Amino acid sequence: MTSGLNDFTYSAPVQTLAGAGLTDLPATLSDAERYTYVHDGNSQVLDHILLSSVLACASYSYDVVHVNSESAVRQSDHDPQVARIALP
């Protein structure tokens, strides 16, 4: 199971889901890469991809593609995320 969520990392819904055993993929990135949007000069994680324990045990790669937040011309203030999951 995968799930997407648009909320702050410290919000109750994100904390509840992570506490229930889902892996929050943005949390797996280094501090320097851990942001999914920039608004008024503030960069934070607002977008999440959550993996169930079964998928988190599979081979996966994850990254945030910083094409909007680091560009003067942008389509959105949110950056796209890419998750690749290799299932057996």
TrEMBL record:
It comes from Candidatus Protofrankia californiensis. This is Endonuclease/exonuclease/phosphatase domain-containing protein. PANTHER family: ENDONUCLEASE/EXONUCLEASE/PHOSPHATASE FAMILY PROTEIN (AFU_ORTHOLOGUE AFUA_3G09210) (PTHR42834), ENDONUCLEASE_EXONUCLEASE_PHOSPHATASE FAMILY PROTEIN (AFU_ORTHOLOGUE AFUA_3G09210) (PTHR42834:SF1). It comes from the Bacteria. Gene3D superfamilies: Endonuclease/exonuclease/phosphatase (3.60.10.10).
